[in-house]
Amino acid sequence: MNTIEAVxxxxxxxxxDILNAAAVAVREVPGLSLLDISxxxxxxxxxxxLVGPGPxxxxxxxALYDVAVEAIDLRQHRGEHPRIGAVDVVPFVPLDETSxxxxxxxxxxxxQAVATRYNIPVFxxxxxxxxxxRRALEHVRRGQFESLEERMSLADGSPDYGPAxxxxxxxxxxxxxxxxxxxxxxxxxxxxxxxxxQIARAVRERDGGLPHVKALGIRLEHLGLxxxxxxxxxxxxxxxxRVFARVEREAARHGVAVxxxxxxxxxxxxxxxxxxxxxxxxxxFTADQMFEMRLAQLNxxxxxxxxxxx
Length: 310
Prior knowledge:
The chain is an alpha+beta fold. It folds into two domains: about 5-175, Formiminotransferase, N-terminal subdomain (Formiminotransferase-cyclodeaminase, Chain B, domain 1, 2-Layer Sandwich), CATH 3.30.990.10; about 180-300, Alpha-Beta Plaits (2-Layer Sandwich). The protein has nine helices and eleven strands. The strands form two sheets. Strands 1, 2, 3, 4, 5, 6 and 7 form a seven-stranded mixed beta sheet that branches. It has a four-stranded antiparallel beta sheet with strand order 9-10-8-11. The longest helix has 19 residues, at about 100-120. The relative contact order is 0.14.
């Protein structure tokens, strides 16, 4: 049976009881593995990385919806990360021999189930999108939960599944299929949000920056600084080291230092290999020279698990 990755994002990043309940709900599903759970209180968001066959993923994701829909009220939700739903987004990512078509079918099946069971509108996005203007997740989430009812009342605002208006507390969900991405954030030694936003504009593709990079400037209240929060949608074309160097260079132009960077969720091992080889100027270095890679090959398993927030 084909293995697929799912990276559901729920709109809570601070309440331990809810996050524990979400983790327990998915861990109880036979055949489903919870590889990672990452939360941030300023984003007020949690990203889970799940791997398993399609039926187990469907069971686990519906269990996650049970927890999130019951516990999260978006009318009370405040956070830096854009969102339209309690379970905001669920991307499916093909692994091993799984095809993108398999992921699209799974997105459609989950979308129908969520709409029927919870009366939540579902928008298909990414490779599962049925309309070109819904391929990009940022288009689906434009205006966030607060403007969702108004947007859905427009002629082109109908969801792919479910009611014609948002769930009163759980909003809507974007469910789709995509290739692996890396959620990569860089924290800056300043509280000036405008600086982070200017740097985000300089590095993101849509404003003429780096290809395959999406970026936002975000304030991290719990750390007292700001962040350039990014998604790298194709790290083979625009590697981590190039993105970090560009952010660092733009920060220096504003007289600001980089404090640290982070990866949210999981990422493919070759992304780190490429960055290490470039930074250390390693000659002819490949992933096969990593001990864990050779050991994994010996045990006939793939040590590389793609992931990322959306």
